[in-house]
């Protein structure tokens, strides 16, 4: 009975401490909204460029190119947004905030969870803004409520996976540039996928890579859901990629955290 009460106390403190850390990180976000604005502007600029400049020359087999393009744009926004998680965490490390919190009676790792959940919220805001802009540009969806929930669930899982990837350089980087530079390949990855053009139009080597990397499976799944079409086995591939990246990144992030605080 005593052990059960102790476990309940630990869990209670963990969630209360995590809510405090989340509130701290969210205040930083709302005090400097330029981070969300910056993250949102670039994907919107890509969407405008591809729809109104390149869209007429790209053959996707769909009548409305913005419908085809939107899933990839959302992934680019998330890949761009998680770089700020690494930046904020690196700043905390350099200022000695981690050591300061470790000296206080708070549950371990709650500071990390505060940053991770803040990333989830801030990226969700960016996603909603981009979808609203896409609607103005002519995006239309026949998806039902369950399909939309599935889309947001996949995007949330993708965000969590990449955010835990971002935690690693945030804890281990030697410079601010090193903390955020890891996101560049992630932002570029959708360009070598089915996000902008069908993979069948690509040269063989590029097509093989594009068809077997995580973005293509995720983009194809979200596109089918938004179109109200049945999803193929791609949804399981997409979920497997997200869960796999999440688990591996979490393990290495926690290892880096323990090394940092030891």
From TrEMBL:
<feature type="transmembrane region" description="Helical">
    <location>
        <begin position="235"/>
        <end position="253"/>
    </location>
</feature>
<dbReference type="InterPro" id="IPR000412">
    <property type="entry name" value="ABC_2_transport"/>
</dbReference>
<dbReference type="InterPro" id="IPR013525">
    <property type="entry name" value="ABC2_TM"/>
</dbReference>
<feature type="transmembrane region" description="Helical">
    <location>
        <begin position="112"/>
        <end position="139"/>
    </location>
</feature>
<dbReference type="InterPro" id="IPR051784">
    <property type="entry name" value="Nod_factor_ABC_transporter"/>
</dbReference>
<keyword id="KW-1003">Cell membrane</keyword>
<keyword id="KW-1133">Transmembrane helix</keyword>
<keyword id="KW-0472">Membrane</keyword>
<feature type="transmembrane region" description="Helical">
    <location>
        <begin position="36"/>
        <end position="58"/>
    </location>
</feature>
<dbReference type="GO" id="GO:0043190">
    <property type="term" value="C:ATP-binding cassette (ABC) transporter complex"/>
</dbReference>
<feature type="transmembrane region" description="Helical">
    <location>
        <begin position="179"/>
        <end position="197"/>
    </location>
</feature>
<comment type="similarity">
    <text>Belongs to the ABC-2 integral membrane protein family.</text>
</comment>
<dbReference type="Pfam" id="PF01061">
    <property type="entry name" value="ABC2_membrane"/>
</dbReference>
<feature type="transmembrane region" description="Helical">
    <location>
        <begin position="70"/>
        <end position="91"/>
    </location>
</feature>
<keyword id="KW-0812">Transmembrane</keyword>
<protein>
    <recommendedName>
        <fullName>Transport permease protein</fullName>
    </recommendedName>
</protein>
<feature type="domain" description="ABC transmembrane type-2">
    <location>
        <begin position="34"/>
        <end position="260"/>
    </location>
</feature>
<keyword id="KW-0813">Transport</keyword>
<feature type="transmembrane region" description="Helical">
    <location>
        <begin position="145"/>
        <end position="167"/>
    </location>
</feature>
<dbReference type="InterPro" id="IPR047817">
    <property type="entry name" value="ABC2_TM_bact-type"/>
</dbReference>
<dbReference type="GO" id="GO:0140359">
    <property type="term" value="F:ABC-type transporter activity"/>
</dbReference>
């Amino acid at each position: 009975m005593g052990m059960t009460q102790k476990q309940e106390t630990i869990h209670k403190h963990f969630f209360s401490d995590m809510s405090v850390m989340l509130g701290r990180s969210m205040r930083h976000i709302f005090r400097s909204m330029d981070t969300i604005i910056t993250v949102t502007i670039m994907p919107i600029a890509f969407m405008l460029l591809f729809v109104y400049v390149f869209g007429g020359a790209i053959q996707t087999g769909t009548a409305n190119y913005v419908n085809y393009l939107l899933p990839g744009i959302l992934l680019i926004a998330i890949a761009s947004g998680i770089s700020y998680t690494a930046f904020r965490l690196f700043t905390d490390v350099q200022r000695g905030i981690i050591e300061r919190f470790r000296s206080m009676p708070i549950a371990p790792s709650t500071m990390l969870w505060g940053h991770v959940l803040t990333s989830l919220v801030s990226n969700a805001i960016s996603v909603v803004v981009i979808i609203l802009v896409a609607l103005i540009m002519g995006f239309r969806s026949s998806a039902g409520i369950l399909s939309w929930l599935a889309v947001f669930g996949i995007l949330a899982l993708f965000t969590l996976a990449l955010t835990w990837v971002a935690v690693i350089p945030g804890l281990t980087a030697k410079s601010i540039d090193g903390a955020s530079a890891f996101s560049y390949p992630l932002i570029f990855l959708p360009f070598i996928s089915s996000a902008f053009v069908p993979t069948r139009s690509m040269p063989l080597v590029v097509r093989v890579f594009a068809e077997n990397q995580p973005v293509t499976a995720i983009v194809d799944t979200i596109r089918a859901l938004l179109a109200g079409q049945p999803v193929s086995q791609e949804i399981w591939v997409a979920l497997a990629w997200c869960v796999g990246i999440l688990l591996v990144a979490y393990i290495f992030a926690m290892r880096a955290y323990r090394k940092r605080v030891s």
